[in-house]
Amino acid sequence: MTSEEQKGIGSDRIRGSSAVNVDLLECPICHDLLWIPIACQRCETSFCSACINRWLAANPRKCPNRCKIYIERKCPSFIVKLLAQLQLACYYQSRGCERVIPYEALETHESECDYQPQQCPGCRLEVLKKDFDNHTSGCAAIELTCQECKLVYKRVDAATTHTENICLREQIKENIRQIRQLTLQLHEMRLLLPSITKARITFNDLPMADEKSNFIPDMYRGLEWNKIYYIQRLHLEKNLLKNVHVPSLTASNSPHVALFSGKASISAENVNGIFTFISLTVYGAWNDNMQLLITGHRNSILVSKYTTVVLWCKPQLILLNWRDIDKVILQPLRGTRHPENGATIGKCNRVSQLLDLPDEVLLMICRYLQPVDVLRAFFKSTSDRLHSLILDYRTNLVLSALSYAEFRLVADELLPYLETSQLTLSNSNIPCLVEHFLSLCHQLPLNNLRKLTLNSCTNISSSFVVWLSNQSKLEDLNVYNGDLEVGA
């Protein structure tokens, strides 16, 4: 049923389907029109799915028609065809909807209908969906939350409950609370300092990493590390810090920073081993206000849980002091890109980020892009490795769906990057655009063109001949009209 208010679809909602015998389409249980029907295999009587399921819950394996045993089957095809012929008024016609919908589209329409009621969370009045946003934007009873002081108040009380002085006072209260919490943590840290010094992990004894990241060894410092890698701190701060969506574990006197981009874990080395997880220092390397979930486990049972908000480029000390656990899981949940991180949506403007990825990952990225976007994103860089990789991948690019504007872009700006010493050009994948190519060929600066193959040519213009005469490096020309070679 498309609405919780509905009890069934009455035959009075049928519009313009007089040729259909409605009696054949009624459910014998609810006596309304069949909805998502199924049938009994023995008597072939059709029922609404919800109706027969309620019946069977009270009468297990018994058919309402007194068959020996109820066995479910698909609804007979002629019933399905008759239902498909029905045109029905929307359930919300009484609220103003005048749409008449085919039976098969009824559920989709009624779930999205602008005339269905929605309850305002403030005044609790029922408002039509089409008016809901306009109503809530001005409803006096709606609760608002100040982003500065976190005070929750109703819109109507803003002048008295949330004045500037009150907002500042609430912010001061929150700052005092945080200072007290940090003071308590600092006191506990001083008490635990001897044990922290003995067990502190700073990653400074790992092999020196180059500009690429390396996974922390599976077994390191008596613990098992999963999906946590490390990189030089200087390289992260200079290059990746502005482009990588990861939280970072850090220590002030270590040349390395540990990173994890998804769910990562640290476990005891032995099956029955346990350890105490006292604290960690963490910051966001790309996102700001990133929610980080830290959980402690013992024998696969959750025993401790801590959630915090990690800020961009601001190391945060988290004091946990979890004792007798055998596994810690670190999981970043969500965050927002910091406005100063230098990333630009939809543009690949930093090659250093891509060069740290293996070829397999780069090819996987290519498969999620349009062919013209692959060419535009990678060939305008200065990386020979990226050029070589895309040259290998170019054979998999399907260019038949390119628009005329995209074809101009590929031909005019990007094809010269494919090969600096020798360029081969063919329209085998885009024969439908050959006339565009011939009409614009004199504008294409293909200075390195050595071989040209054109398919499905029906005529050759004089401008094309002139253009050919200016291609001093052209060595091999093939022009085809269907299967017939007309020029070489």
UniProtKB/TrEMBL annotation:
<dbReference type="InterPro" id="IPR036047">
    <property type="entry name" value="F-box-like_dom_sf"/>
</dbReference>
<feature type="domain" description="SIAH-type">
    <location>
        <begin position="85"/>
        <end position="141"/>
    </location>
</feature>
<dbReference type="InterPro" id="IPR013083">
    <property type="entry name" value="Znf_RING/FYVE/PHD"/>
</dbReference>
<feature type="domain" description="RING-type">
    <location>
        <begin position="27"/>
        <end position="64"/>
    </location>
</feature>
<feature type="domain" description="F-box">
    <location>
        <begin position="351"/>
        <end position="402"/>
    </location>
</feature>
<keyword id="KW-0479">Metal-binding</keyword>
<dbReference type="InterPro" id="IPR032675">
    <property type="entry name" value="LRR_dom_sf"/>
</dbReference>
<protein>
    <submittedName>
        <fullName>Uncharacterized protein</fullName>
    </submittedName>
</protein>
<keyword id="KW-0862">Zinc</keyword>
<dbReference type="InterPro" id="IPR001841">
    <property type="entry name" value="Znf_RING"/>
</dbReference>
<dbReference type="InterPro" id="IPR013010">
    <property type="entry name" value="Znf_SIAH"/>
</dbReference>
<feature type="domain" description="TRAF-type">
    <location>
        <begin position="108"/>
        <end position="150"/>
    </location>
</feature>
<keyword id="KW-0863">Zinc-finger</keyword>
<dbReference type="InterPro" id="IPR001293">
    <property type="entry name" value="Znf_TRAF"/>
</dbReference>
<dbReference type="Pfam" id="PF00646">
    <property type="entry name" value="F-box"/>
</dbReference>
<dbReference type="GO" id="GO:0008270">
    <property type="term" value="F:zinc ion binding"/>
</dbReference>
<dbReference type="InterPro" id="IPR001810">
    <property type="entry name" value="F-box_dom"/>
</dbReference>
<feature type="zinc finger region" description="TRAF-type">
    <location>
        <begin position="108"/>
        <end position="150"/>
    </location>
</feature>
